[in-house]
UniProtKB/TrEMBL annotation:
Keyword entries, A-Z: Oxidoreductase
Cofactor names: FAD
Listed EC numbers: 1.5.3.17
Keyword Oxidoreductase recorded: yes
Gene it is expressed from: PAO4_5
Sequence similarity: Belongs to the flavin monoamine oxidase family.
Broad EC category: oxidoreductase
Residue ranges occupied by any Amine oxidase domain in the UniProt entry: 38-250
Gene3D superfamilies associated with the record: FAD/NAD(P)-binding domain (3.50.50.60)
Pfam families: Amino_oxidase
MF terms (GO), sorted A to Z: polyamine oxidase activity
Keyword Oxidoreductase: yes
Protein name: Polyamine oxidase 4
The organism's taxonomic lineage, starting at the top: Eukaryota, Viridiplantae, Streptophyta, Embryophyta, Tracheophyta
Amino acid sequence: MDPKQLFSTNLIDGKIVASHIKRQCSPLPSVIVIGAGISGLAAARSLCDASFEVTILESRDRLGGRINTDHSFGCPVDMGASWLHGVCNENPLAPLIRGLGLTLYRTSGDNSVLYDHDLESCMLFNTDGHQVPQQIVMDVGETFKRILEETGKVRDEDPDDMSVQQAISVVLNRHPELRQQGLSHEVLQWYICRMEAWFAADADMISLKTWDQEHVLSGGHGLMVQGYDPVIKALAKDLDIRLNHRTYGVRF
């Protein structure tokens, strides 16, 4: 399918609706979009399809922003964004991916290719290549759940925001029995790393106030078999994109 047909409409509230941007006669109004990540490309595509003259300025030497599909291993590996969370029309990406004919590895439900969403399925190995006893993985997992529950109390007590890492430190100072030693400490760090991977940010950058306030869409989750690269290329087709163009904000 022609990408221009895919993206000639706006996706609002999960439904495809006709563009509300009034098409204008020449001379065309011009717009500069800063950044060729997926948001910038989608905005530029909508404006272009609404007869605006659009130029995208991107400081890097590539498209995609946090989306970066690597092919150096002979297969697509997403180094940044990789999942589609919520395979449903409520997610604006889902109809686009479906329209491009891209395949998903389902990572939730009965047909999942991954089994890492429960403690019993997590197999960890130490630096010597020996498997961590499964009971330790499960016990530390339960401890981590309790730590997160206690961070909720810290949030309720303090009107000011802080990082999740700061809150964990407060909890461990209040409840030294939750501290882990040796191998258990390493497993606890792994659980924190899983949390960081989910938010694509270090724990000292994750907001305690909002980390668990997300709205989970229906439809389960999926990994892009071909990576997100085809989506970026489809959005970027025929757009005027200037790579290696760094912009600077001016404060008045």
